[in-house]
Specification:
- The protein is elongated.
- It has a domain of 62 residues.
- The chain is built from four helices and no strands.
- Helix 3 packs antiparallel against helix 4.
- Helix content is 74%, strand content 0%.
Length: 98
Amino acid sequence: MEAKKTREPFPGAYFAGLAITLFLLYLVLVVGSSLPPAVSGFAVALLLGVTVNPRYAAAFLAVGLLSIVLGYLAADPQVTWGGVGLSLAEVALLLGRR
């Protein structure tokens, strides 16, 4: 019986990806908790927004715009500026696709 081929690009690639993902999540947690609400909302949403698959950028842009409106109506600067950051990231993704 043949040995089953692994799909990993190199041995331990999935563990390296897990370590990088956990580090980035920790970084988002530190950034989000150490900055003022508006700045952290903008920074976290912008950084996470650029990781979206460009196929779904238009939907995330709509969510960002909705977040701006709802955050403004609720007088919540973190949600409002998070929507701004997400919207800017998605506009950059949409323009980069062309």
